[in-house]
Amino acid sequence: MNTYKLHDSQDHIGFGQMSGERFSWIYRLNYSYFEWIIKETDICFTDLRIFYFFGKPLELKNENFSTEKSNLIFDIASANGVNSSSGAFLINISILDILFNKKIITNNDFKFIDFKFSPEIIEINYNKLKILKRKTILD
Question: Model-level pTM?
Answer without folding.
Answer: 0.83
